[in-house]
Amino acid sequence: MKIAVLAASGKQGRKLVEEAHNRGLDVTAFVRNEKKQVENVPNIVKDIFDLTYDDIKDFDVIIDAFGAWGDENVIQHQTSLKHLVYLLKGKPNRLLIVGGAGSLYVDSNRRVRLIDTPDFPESGKSLAASMAKAFNRLSTHKDVNWTYVSPSMIFDADGKRTGEYQLGSDELLKNADGKSYISYADYAVAMIDEAENGNHIKERITVGSK
């Protein structure tokens, strides 16, 4: 299996590359800035918006770890994913996306999303809304082998790797302490498990700590 991690120089991208590399998988890091290449693996320096199918055709799994912040930039979550979907329509490669938590439901009737709750921070609404729109558009594609992986509400860049997690579908998960939490490291464990096993093609899943 050959795995490509796009936007690999970010915090989550690096965790994904590290997890795949430590398992002995054939992983390549795609980075935009040649000064931010990832250690211990091959790197390809190319902006995600400049990718062609020839750049990624030899990879069984492409993991999209793209991130953009600031109200003027969050639209890129939609445009970057639209570009990748265009490249992979009708192709055998699998596309795994580092998604958002805002579009997860917080009730069993699946009517209220996390982004719609009163306590959702105003500062994160534009990002969450853009990621939700990107997911909604992605979910209509039957000709792309996608898997959208949402983290829990608290997504901890500095949290420990326990190697354990729980999986859900589109409802917000809580752990034994009643918290909706996952570390970047354990999220990477779950993502690379999905890359290896392919159990949720054309589905959205969510990851939480136990």
Automatic annotation (TrEMBL):
It comes from the Bacteria. CDD domains: BVR-B_like_SDR_a. Coiled coil: none annotated. Residues 8-193 form the NAD(P)-binding domain. InterPro entries: NAD(P)-bd_dom, NAD(P)-bd_dom_sf, Polyketide_Oxido-like. This is NADH-flavin reductase.
